[in-house]
Specification:
- Strand 6 and strand 7 form a beta hairpin.
- The protein contains three helices and seven strands.
- It is α+β, with helices and mostly antiparallel strands.
Length: 196
């Protein structure tokens, strides 16, 4: 089938080329070889190509670097977790690759450079909180958990402990942008963790 539009053009006239070319019969041709592989796999297994369909990844292991897109059920679960936790507690399967996704980082404490960066971000978040609310002076203790999203650096959703003098440790949450440059750190939000 001949395409009904130029394959390297775009719909909006903007900077980003279209990712697929729509054919006259209504189907699409994907440019990405990885997506094409998945499309062929789904056509073979399901009789139709749909990224939302579930599939057995163990049968699709001819590429060790292969990352699959989220299924419809995973997208719905992810969106629900974002709504319920604000991005601080999300679960994304490790083999899923989607850009702009907040991912948990269970091994953040095994990388000394990353741990130091998260500690620095958390200290800045405590300082911002202390300046905004002068009720008590909290001091950062330790990072408990982190989820991150790539964005010209990282946006970290950090859960950490801080302590005010004479009080028990308080669990805090902070959203902090850590840019590529070492000194480019901006606290977006800092608060005590809301009780469930």
């Amino acid at each position: 089938m001949a395409p009904d539009s130029v394959g390297d053009g775009n719909r909006s006239g903007g900077l980003y080329p279209r990712r697929r070319t729509r054919l006259l019969d209504g189907s699409s041709v994907f440019r990405s070889a990885r997506k094409q592989k998945l499309r062929e796999y789904l056509e073979e297994k399901k009789g139709k190509a749909s990224f939302e369909d579930e599939f057995n990844e163990d049968e699709f292991n001819d590429d060790d670097d292969y990352h699959r897109p989220m299924t419809r059920a995973e997208i719905e679960s992810y969106n629900k977790q974002i709504q319920e936790t604000g991005g601080f507690d999300v679960d994304v399967p490790p083999e899923v690759y989607n850009t702009g996704v907040i991912r948990p980082d269970p091994d953040f404490d095994k990388n000394p450079w990353k741990l130091e960066k998260l500690n620095r971000c958390s200290r800045m978040a405590v300082d911002v909180y202390n300046k905004k609310y002068k009720k008590a002076e909290y001091e950062f203790m330790r990072v408990l958990k982190v989820c991150s999203m790539m964005a010209a650096g990282y946006v970290h959703y950090i859960t950490f402990e801080a302590k005010a003098e004479g009080a028990a440790p308080t669990c805090f949450q902070a959203i902090v942008f850590a840019g590529i440059a070492e000194d480019n750190i901006k606290v977006i939000m800092s608060r005590p963790k809301p009780s469930s």
